[in-house]
Amino acid sequence: MNASARRQGTKNPPVTFNTFDASLSASYELDFWGLAQDNMRAARNSARAATYARDVVALTTAANVANTYFTVLSLRERISIAKKNIEAAKRILAITQAKVTNGVSSNLELAQQTAILAGVEAQIPALEEQEREERYALAILLGRVPEGFDVDANTLEGIAAPPVEPGLPSALLQRRPDIAQAEAQLFAAHANLDAARAAFLPAIGLTGSGGYSAGQIANLISPSNLAWSIGASLLQTIFDGGRLTSQRDLAKAQEVELVAAYRSAVLNALADVESALGGGSSLAERERLTTVQVDNAAEAFRISELQYREGVVDLLTVLQAQQTLFSSQDTLVQVKLARLQVGVALYRALGGGWTVAVDADMPTRNDFIPIPDFTDLPVGNPF
Question: CA-to-CA distance for 61 and 367, rounded, in angstroms?
Answer without folding.
Answer: 33
